Amino acid sequence: MNDPAFTIALALAIGMIAQSAARHIRIPGIVLLLAGGILTGPDALNIIRPDTLGEALPIIVGFAVAVILFESPIYWKQKAYCWMQSVQLLL
User: How many other C-beta atoms lie within 10 A of the C-beta of residue 66?
Assistant: First the structure.
């Protein structure tokens, strides 16, 4: 359980499940990603142990933040576009 590869694989699997569930119930993915991270992290169930990643942790966190910041505007742009189409249909 202290293997860095296992930690990364488990975090990716939980992230993919959270993202799929968020799309299915139509909420922003970040909501379930945060919930999954808090639930499986060292403060709750202690399934994912970030300390096993050592010096690679800041690099992985930086990459994850970049992905989140890239995904968020795309999600909101799609929502705004759908909303604008609905308004045009009403007019």
Answer: 10
Q: Is the pLDDT of residue 44 over 70?
A: yes
Which tens digits make up the pLDDT trace of 58-74? 898 898 888 777 776 66
Domain with 27 in it:
4-90
The mean pLDDT of the chain is: 81
CA gap 90, 57 in Å, rounded: 50
Q: How many domains does the chain fold into?
A: 1
At 21, which helix (H) or strand (E)? helix 4-25
**Rounded to 5 degrees, what angle do the CA atoms 27, 31, 36 make?**
125
What is the value of pTM for the model shown? 0.65
